[in-house]
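ugh ok fine here u go
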Amino acid sequence: MSQLFHGAGVALVTLFHDDGAIDPGATAGLAAELADRGMRAVLVAGTTGEAATLSNAERGELIGAVREAVPPGVPVIAGTGAPSARQAVELTGQAVAAGADAVLAWPPPGDQAEYFKAVATAAQGRPVLAYHFPRLFPPGVPVDRLAGLPVAGQKDSSGDPDRLLDELAHYPGATYVGSSAVLALAGPMGAAGALLALANIAPEGCAAAFAGDAAAQRALAGRHLATSRGGVPALKRLLAQERGLPATTRAG
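structure:
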């Protein structure tokens, strides 16, 4: 199965003005810079992008701005997971209209095959990735069901090394990891790539760790642990400290 991309990509933050309004220009500018620094894909309106706080119109504006800002060879993936297939289909259709090259969707409890079939239809031929992150979106996607879903691959943000080994040994589709804790394992073991929150801050380090550089993996430890424990607010505080970017968040 062909891969959407190979290597390290970024799960992009959404930048806001001080009053909480989205800043599509600044967000797209950050995406373009990260692509210039080696990121192979950009995920917009994912968990790191505070998707749950965005209106449909805001999602579309962000997707369009990022797609215009990054090179054509860098796929823009839109987060379109939702509590129902009806909602996910609407978000997917809007993402496609805004210029998304692929979508990432977490499934609610229930019939995952029918859910992803509906999303795939709405994606109009664009690749769909299943999103496994059971801590936020239970129950997640069991490894033994992945091959039966109409998806091109999956993003696994669990950070579970046993799950990762199971995926790489038994799932023939593309596996993209979402945890910066397992990069030096995932890349050398054959994962297709990664979509990472920490890549907003350390794109080169994330890429090196995915390529198997153990020292680069260790060097990410402090910032990985800070963002893993503190979520998007902690990530944005680091971006403010290290890059001078706004720390405004809707995530609490």
